[in-house]
Design a protein that fits this description.
The chain has one domain: 3-Layer(aba) Sandwich (Mannitol-specific EII, Chain A), CATH 3.40.930.10. The C terminus is likely disordered. A hairpin with a 2-residue loop joins β2 and β3. Strands 1, 2, 3, 4, 5 and 6 form a 6-stranded mixed sheet that branches. The chain is an alpha/beta fold. The protein is built from 5 helices and 6 strands. The chain is globular, with a radius of gyration of 14 Å. Helix content is about 45%, strand content about 20%.
Length: about 160
């Protein structure tokens, strides 16, 4: 994966979500991805929640990157939600999260999974990108914010 946009589809973006808990966020994003890849949303949810139990995926600055490896996937896929009200992801900075980027990878894809996580983590550290995502109120606006990250790696803010 060379580009964060390789992970996203317009159908996997929720730019104005009103999901009031970490479980609900993961459940909704799991269902969104399940519809795109033809898998069971409950299986995705359970895998992501199992990973959540190992440690927080709240990386700070209002960002969470829940992730899991899933049987039946051909390549990594992601889903993004900008929450209207932030929820507790037990982030390292104790801040609630409103920018959620779910990453799923095939069960056997160690390197692809790690590359996807590293790429998303790196771009989500950019303060300007986070600010722009918080102002993005449509799928097209979210895609537009992520587009420059595919053209060149910007300096981490």
């Amino acid at each position: 994966m060379t580009d964060v946009l390789d992970l996203l589809r317009p159908e996997t973006i929720a730019p104005r979500a009103k999901w009031g808990s970490r479980k609900l966020v993961i459940s909704e994003l799991s269902d969104i991805v399940a519809k795109q890849v033809g898998l069971d949303g409950n299986d995705i949810f359970n895998a992501v929640m199992e990973r959540e139990r190992l440690g927080s995926t709240g990386v700070g600055e209002g960002v969470a990157i829940p992730h899991a490896r899933i049987d039946g996937l051909e390549k990594p896929i992601g889903a993004f939600a900008r929450l209207e009200e932030a929820v507790d992801f037990e982030a390292i900075d104790e801040r609630d999260c409103d920018l959620i980027f779910l990453i799923l990878a095939p069960k056997e894809s160690g390197v692809d999974h790690l590359r996807a996580l590293a790429k998303v983590s790196r771009i989500m550290r950019q303060e300007r990108l986070r600010e722009d995502l918080r102002k993005a109120h449509s799928v097209d606006a979210v895609l537009e914010v992520f587009a420059p990250t595919s053209q060149s790696e910007e300096t981490v803010a």
